[in-house]
Automatic annotation (TrEMBL):
Keywords noted in UniProt: Cell membrane, Membrane, Signal, Transmembrane, Transmembrane helix
GO cellular component: plasma membrane
Source species taxonomy: Bacteria, Pseudomonadati, Pseudomonadota, Alphaproteobacteria, Hyphomicrobiales
InterPro entries xref list: LSM_dom_sf, MS_channel_C, MscS-like_channel, MscS_beta-dom_sf, MscS_channel_2nd, MscS_channel_C_sf, MscS_channel_TM-2
Protein's UniProt name: Mechanosensitive ion channel family protein
GO molecular function, one term: mechanosensitive monoatomic ion channel activity
Length: 843
């Protein structure tokens, strides 16, 4: 018992000691943590961050250089390394760009402080000297980091160029690599082929059993999703382009535009739909882990072969139309169209199978000799097909009957086909199998893509031709849906043609680049550089920034137009603001909005506004020489908008121009005459010249009607009649009241002038016209004569013989029945007579 108690005491003491030590250590740790928390952690400056990023970039560059050395013969790996090098280059450039604002601040501050005082000058304050030294040291550090960044950027660019050169050399070596072709090589290839078929059969059967037992649901789900994606694309395409995806059997003579459109869209849309089905199927099957690593590339090659053969088949059916000659785009006979179509399809099948079997060989690890012999046979078959086709008679007969026997190829075309076919055979037999296979592939796939692009471009050109788009199905739909006129439909045709150009190029060019050895990463880099950095000498242009600037400019401009309409139609219209004030406010807001939109757009495009300083200085010199009139008109326009000596709607007279002011801009003013002619008058002429404004303060104006009566009329009666008729016109003002002025005793009439005032000068023409009609009617009723102009002519007795004989002949021959009636003959004689002062005729 005593021993047990001693042991228990010992254990208790040890436990207490350990617990005390633990709590003491915990307290010390907590106190140390509080002490560390009290001291603020150092914050990295932008310079420190840049230096760390430079060091990190150097490490990445070293890793990339090592990767290039290790993968000098792997094109796919080099593509990935080139992409990483391009990203590293942009990151290094970003480091220098981020330091530029601080460098500019230091530079400006040092310029403000100035240079240190020279000998003999009073000393400066110590704080100024310290600030200058600090800023100079920081500037030196930034220069050092910027220099490292520039050196690193040069090294990265050199590495990118090295990768490009290595890929180019690797491509050339692959094409021109020569392989020995002999009977022993063919025997080895035959044995390898038998072994490959056996291994692939076992691998395919084991994979199929595994999928059916364990991956059945994911496989069906992947197939369902891929089919749904393809059906969505196909149904949408049929909804939008249904009229261009199938040929109308009822059309006897389809138009050229219709044939082109159906050929292009049926090939493009249906091929894209199948491509979506194949790509999504492979993506979902691979994503759901249905494909094994050894089966996945074979399935991908199978899908690629199916897509290639289908595309060539659609192309043949669209261009050659073997069974529908009226839809054919080339002048071939029916037999020639079918034979050429079958040959092209056969070459596509040969190329596709060669690619598929080559992928199987790579997956099964078959020897290279099997791939070489397989490509050899493919090149030989395609070469023989080309030579065979060159001896055919596919061209349309001279009588135009597609069922008649055709004619031979044009001589040049037949020679080209034979030369290309013989070259493929010779290259393959001499061991350049890679070159022969590449040329054969490009003949089929690239030729089909280029031909489809060409058909698309021709279709766009035909649709955008003037007055051609209106006959299409899409144009008729737009006319019914949006009630567009012929001009709008014609403009829409131009836009549709440009859209077809864009579709043909956007789809075709990347496909051609991929076929000629480019990778998807290469295209991504090209597109990124195209939209973010295009260098023209020392100028860097960003197409993406320019597009953003254009969109922002358009947005601000549309907002300005909306604000103009809202202010004019709601605020100023409800306030009954004068029309001229409304026009001035609208114009001012418009120019202000355009200026703001231009500044925002230029800034968003990445263009430094300070770079316009040189342009502004050049313009200031140009203003002094050749732009005086432009600036004068601009300033005069601003004065007209602010001072408003006349406004929109005023009746003005300026020089030889008289009419209604329709528009006042900062350069010129538009005046519409009463004959509906628009006269553009520079604003400087309106400011410096005399301008008459009939409606400056109001529209009240005086109107006059001159009236002449014979000397037999009573002047007072005439004046009473004019005033009486004027009083019946409601538009004539009563204050000031109308009055008649007896102006003068004319040479053959008494001249009066009726004067009255109108509340609106615009009614003057109508009122004067109606008054003249009433005056003439009343004068006829009252017997008041309006005399005709008369002239006195005195004929002396000693008139010239010619004139006397003429008078005598006309007076003596009046009774002659052969002469014209006396009424017609007296008119010239009467014109020779005159009147005396009392009105009698002079002889």
């Amino acid at each position: 018992m005593r021993l047990r108690s001693i042991l228990l005491r010992t254990i208790l003491l040890v436990t207490l000691a350990l617990a005390g030590a633990h709590f003491k250590g915990a307290a010390a740790f907590a106190q140390e943590a509080q002490t560390q928390a009290a001291v603020p952690a150092p914050v990295d400056t932008p310079f420190d961050q840049a230096a760390k990023e430079i060091d990190k970039a150097k490490v990445q560059l070293t890793a990339l250089q090592d990767g290039v050395k290790q993968n000098a013969d792997n094109d796919d790996a080099l593509v990935g390394l080139a992409t990483k090098a391009d990203e590293l280059s942009r990151a290094v450039i970003t480091i220098s760009v981020n330091l530029r604002p601080r460098f500019d601040q230091i530079k400006n501050r040092l310029a403000e402080i100035g240079d240190p005082p020279k000998d003999g000058q009073p000393p400066e304050a110590e704080i100024v000297t310290q600030e200058r030294n600090t800023l100079a040291a920081e500037r030196a550090q930034i220069n050092a980091v910027t220099g490292d960044a520039e050196n690193l950027s040069i090294a990265v660019t050199k590495l990118v160029n090295q990768i490009i050169e290595m890929r180019r050399q690797l491509f050339a070596d692959t094409l021109f690599k020569r392989t020995e072709v002999s009977a022993s090589v063919i025997d080895d290839a035959a044995g390898a082929f038998v072994h490959e078929v056996s291994e692939f059969s076992q691998a395919l059967s084991s994979w199929a059993v595994f999928v059916w037992k364990f991956k059945r649901f994911p496989m069906f789900a992947a197939i369902f999703l891929s089919l749904a994606s393809a059906l969505i694309l196909l149904s949408g395409s049929y909804r939008l382009f249904g009229a261009y995806l199938r040929r109308d059997e009822a059309v006897e003579e389809p138009s050229y535009i219709g044939r082109l459109s159906i050929a292009f869209w049926s090939t493009l849309i249906r091929t894209l739909a199948l491509s979506v089905l194949l790509v999504t199927s492979f993506f979902f099957l691979n994503g759901f882990n249905v494909l094994r690593p050894d089966i996945a590339p074979v399935i991908g090659a199978l899908f690629g072969t199916i897509g290639l053969v289908y595309f060539v088949g659609r192309f043949v059916n669209a261009i050659f139309a073997p069974r529908e000659p009226r839809w054919r785009l080339v002048r071939l006979s029916n037999l020639g169209a079918r034979s050429i179509g079958y040959c092209l399809l056969a070459m596509a099948v040969v190329n596709g199978l060669d690619y598929l079997f080559g992928t199987v060989s790579e997956a099964m690890g078959s020897p290279l000799v099997l791939t070489v012999i397989r490509s050899l046979f493919a090149a030989l078959i395609i070469g023989m097909i080309l030579i065979t086709v060159s001896f055919g008679k596919p061209m349309l007969a001279r009588n135009g009957d597609p069922d008649a026997p055709g004619r031979h190829w044009p001589r040049g075309m037949a020679i080209i086909l034979r030369v290309v076919g013989a070259s493929l055979i010779i290259a393959a037999l001499t061991g350049y199998v890679g070159l022969a296979r590449f040329v054969a592939t490009q003949l089929i796939i690239t030729g089909a893509v280029v031909a489809t692009m060409y058909v698309g471009l021709l279709s766009g050109k035909a649709i955008s031709r003037q007055e051609s788009f209106g006959d299409t199905f899409f144009a008729r739909f737009l006319t019914r849906r949006f009630n567009l006129g012929p001009v709008a439909i014609d403009q829409a045709g131009l836009l549709v043609g440009l859209a077809i150009y864009a579709v043909a190029l956007i789809v075709g060019v990347p496909l051609i680049l991929l076929l000629w050895g480019f990778h998807v990463q290469d295209l991504q880099i090209i597109v990124y550089r195209l939209f973010t950095e295009v260098r023209l000498g020392g100028i860097s242009i960003s197409l993406l920034g320019i597009c953003t600037g254009i969109l922002l400019f358009a947005g601000v401009y549309l907002l300005t137009r909306w604000l103009q309409r809202w202010l004019d139609g709601n605020v100023m219209a409800r306030s009954h603001v004068d029309l001229g004030v409304r026009n001035s406010v609208k114009t001012g807001i418009g120019y202000l909005g355009v200026g703001i939109a231009a500044i925002i757009g230029v800034s968003a495009a990445g263009i430094d506004l300070s770079s316009f300083a040189l342009v502004a200085s050049a313009l200031s010199v140009g203003i002094g020489f050749g732009l005086q009139n432009i600036v004068s008109n601009f300033v005069s326009g601003l004065i007209l908008l602010v001072e408003r000596p006349f406004k929109v709607g005023d009746h003005v007279v300026s020089g030889t121009a008289e009419g209604i002011v329709k528009r006042i801009s900062v350069r010129a003013t538009e005046i519409e005459t009463f004959r509906k002619q628009s006269i553009i008058v520079p604003n400087s002429e309106l400011i410096n010249g005399l301008v008459g404004n009939w409606t400056h303060r109001n529209k009240i104006g005086r109107s006059e009607i001159p009236v002449s009566v014979s000397y037999n009329a009573d002047p007072q009666q005439v004046m009473d009649i004019l005033l009486e008729l004027t009083a019946k016109i409601p538009l004539v003002m009563r204050n000031p009241e109308p009055h008649v002025e007896f102006l003068r005793f004319g040479p053959y009439s008494l001249d009066f002038e009726l004067r009255f005032f109108l509340a609106d000068m615009g009614d003057g023409m109508t009122v004067r016209n109606n008054l003249r009609i009433e005056i003439l009617r009343r004068f006829k009723a009252e017997g008041i004569e309006i005399p005709l102009p008369q002239s006195d002519l005195t004929i002396h007795r000693d008139a010239p013989p010619v004139l006397a004989n003429a008078v005598k002949e006309r007076t003596d021959g009046r009774d002659d029945p052969k002469n014209k009636p006396i009424e017609e003959e007296e008119r010239p004689v009467r014109q020779l007579r005159g009147r005396t002062a009392d009105g009698s005729l002079k002889s």
